[in-house]
Specification:
Layout: E1 3-8, H1 15-30, E2 34-39, H2 63-72, E3 76-80, H3 81-86, E4 98-101, H4 103-111, E5 114-118
Parallel strand pairs: 1-2, 1-5, 2-3, 3-4
Helix pairs in contact: 1-2
C-alpha cells in the first residue's frame, strides 16, 4: 500500500499553504493511500479545536470543513512534540485522530516506504 505524509508547517501565518495541504491530504486518503498529516512549526496550531474555524481561502472549501472531512475519512494527524510544547498549546484541546509524536515517528513512516510533501 502506498504511504504519503503531508507536512504542514503553516497555519494563520500562511492560510493558503495550510489549506492546500489538507486538500491534497483529502485526495490522498480518498484514493486509498495511507495518509498522515505531520504538523510542525506554526502548523501545530491547527491541532487545536476551534483554531481553524475562521480560515477560508478563496477558491477552496473552508479549512475547518477540509479538516473534518480528512479526519472523518480515517486520516491521521501527527503533531511535532517540541513544536507543540514551544508554543504552549493545550493537549486537552487536540482534534480527534491527533497524536503528539517525536521526529522518530515521522522518520519511521518515511523509512518504511512513505513519501513526503511539504506545505
Amino acid at each position: 500500500m502506498a504511504k504519503l505524509m503531508i507536512s504542514i508547517t503553516s497555519a494563520k501565518n500562511d492560510t493558503d499553504k495550510a489549506t492546500v495541504g489538507f486538500v491534497v491530504a483529502n485526495a490522498s486518503v480518498a484514493s486509498g493511500v495511507e495518509t498522515v498529516i505531520f504538523l510542525s512549526t506554526e502548523g501545530v496550531r491547527l491541532s487545536q479545536v476551534g483554531y481553524a474555524d475562521d480560515i477560508h481561502e478563496a477558491g477552496f472549501a473552508p479549512l475547518k470543513e477540509l479538516m473534518e472531512k480528512y479526519i472523518g475519512a480515517g486520516g491521521s494527524l501527527w503533531v511535532c512534540s517540541p513544536c507543540f510544547k514551544k508554543r504552549g498549546l493545550d493537549e486537552t484541546r487536540l482534534l480527534p485522530s491527533t497524536t503528539i509524536v517525536g521526529g522518530a515517528k515521522a522518520v519511521e513512516f518515511l523509512a518504511t516506504g512513505g513519501t513526503a510533501l511539504t506545505y
